[in-house]
Amino acid sequence: MQKTFIPAILASTLALGGCAQLGDLGGLGGILGGDDRGDNYGYGYQNNSEFERAAVQACGREAERYGRVNITYAEQRSRGTYTVQGRIDNRDQRRDQFTCEFRDDGRIVDFKLG
């Protein structure tokens, strides 16, 4: 019985390891604690431009430092600048919202909580 048990453990370990290599833990994200929402933080792209995607990604990653993120709004306010707003799932109600300004050179120029 021990001879068949060890190969079964090795096979399952390799299978799970392969899934973890896929973006967002593959289809096992919910089981293993990852996020199955993909990389858009719950935001449905309106413009679907590369600039909008880059802004949502950068601002979402910055906001993730404070908790789980849900992007609620993204709009190009001026030429070369995108504004992204969202909510952060944490216990501090004073810091559960954020606003982020993202420039077309790939930099976050302003990030505010509250």
TrEMBL record:
<protein>
    <recommendedName>
        <fullName>Lipoprotein</fullName>
    </recommendedName>
</protein>
